[in-house]
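Sequence and structure are kept together here, with a separate record for every protein. An example record follows, reproduced without changes.
>
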Amino acid sequence: MSSLVASSLHKDTIYPDFSSLSAGSLKVKLADTEEEVQASQRLRYTVFYEELGAKGNPKILHEKRDFDEYDDLCDHILVIDTESNNKVVGTYRVLLSETARRAGVPMYTETEFDLSGLHGEDKIIMETSRSCVLEAYRNKMIVNLLWQAISQYAIANGVTYLVGVPSFHGTDPEEYAEALAYLYENHQADPALNLCARKDLAGTLESASYPKKKCSLSSAREITAALPPLVKGYIRLGAKVSQNLVIDRQFNTVDVCIIVDAQDQQNDYVSYYHRKAEKNEG
């Protein structure tokens, strides 16, 4: 995609200043060169393909980069280690609904889940995807840096809903029966939103139901602690989950769609990130 086309698609996007987001040798920035985007794609390949067993096409396997058609539309948030030659050690990509609309494509999440209940003239949806952190850097500090960057980006652009597709490793929901049942029982999205797997899934994607195993309230804290870190982070933000699941055999995952009301000031975490963003702007 030419820089002129990319610029027109993002013409109304507001980019916050990430210069204050750092911890020790770790710093946050937006990728602003093709080389930096490719560095994030190589990190994704390391995590998704070499570590977690995703199955790529011959070009992905040859180039050892995880990439798709959405990379050109997205902004890529990077965490770099300045003491390791600015190595990219964490990444998230973000996409605004207006950018996808201008490009004439659904959001990436919409290739798996129906988000029609969220759209509206006054609604701005922000999608997060392809989150990963190099294994040696996986700690609370780097996750917090990424979440602060995401929140600043969302607040700057007046986002209504944050959406994403966090995953459980493997393709058998029964392996995570208690955790998935806990999400279904305690964090379901409003049924009126019809947040379900698409009915026309094909190829490596298929819909699945949540396991029926019940979990007691006395075990809720223990189950929450056992959730994948990304899922746990969304739940702490007040996320609600889809009515069913999607199994992605290419990426070897069980996917759950989440939504967060980014305008809910009654949510302690949302309110906290709003205050942080206002402080940074000041």
